[in-house]
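Structure ticket #2291
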Amino acid sequence: MDAILRVEGVSLSFGGLQVLRDVGFEVPEGRITSVVGPNGAGKTSLFNIIGGFYRPDAGRVRFGETDITRLPAHRRTHLGIGRTFQNIALYKGLSVLDNIKLGAHARLRSGLVSCGLALPAARREELALRERVETEIVDFLELEHIRALPVGALPYGLQKRVELARALALQPRLLLLDEPVAGMNREETEDMARFILDIVEERGVTVLLVEHDMGMVMDLSDHVVVLNFGEVLTQGRPDAVAGHPEVIRAYLGTGAGGGERPWSS
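Resolution: structure written out below.
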């Protein structure tokens, strides 16, 4: 399986604090890869490097055959990298539909002046965008019944789904999901897990996931990377990672029983 993303020897420090040290792994195309680890393991910092918000001290990040290590975040969007955030980043006063459409504007060919003047080409592109969002994304994520409502009036779980829809509007090849089910109840978590699987299986999008819900991670993932104190502790298929003694110790401490797993129900 070809890798769509390669993280190669990435290190990062803030002042004298080493946050990431020689982190390397590959993300197979058309699969779900998860990055897990205890709090403070470096997961968010790693995501911010991949997304273009941080620049590593050493190492590089490659998307396909392109070295994106020094590319700004908006250039990575144009290449086909979409992202959701741990803290919801939506425009609460705008409708669901308008929030989703805003996610796609980074990929429009019409410039700011053309859109502002409502020139014919810009109008045609805007109408095509609206039709695509309504037929491909709103229906896909089951948002039709709330499409005209302001986002701020929605419950938390639906706001997370709208943020996912906005990321999909970019037509990404790679989707970075930062704790997509954090704060959700069981029903909302199950719905989100179903949508993530459908995104991969039906739309062919590759997913890189950071998540603390280890049951969900183990159920969805094809490949799991475990970080601990800024380093890759182990990586591999979920069943292999789940029983790794160092992973169990990292989550539960050295006193954990040999057969106990941190994601046991």
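Closing remark: The chain has two domains: 1-80+173-182+208-265, 90-171.
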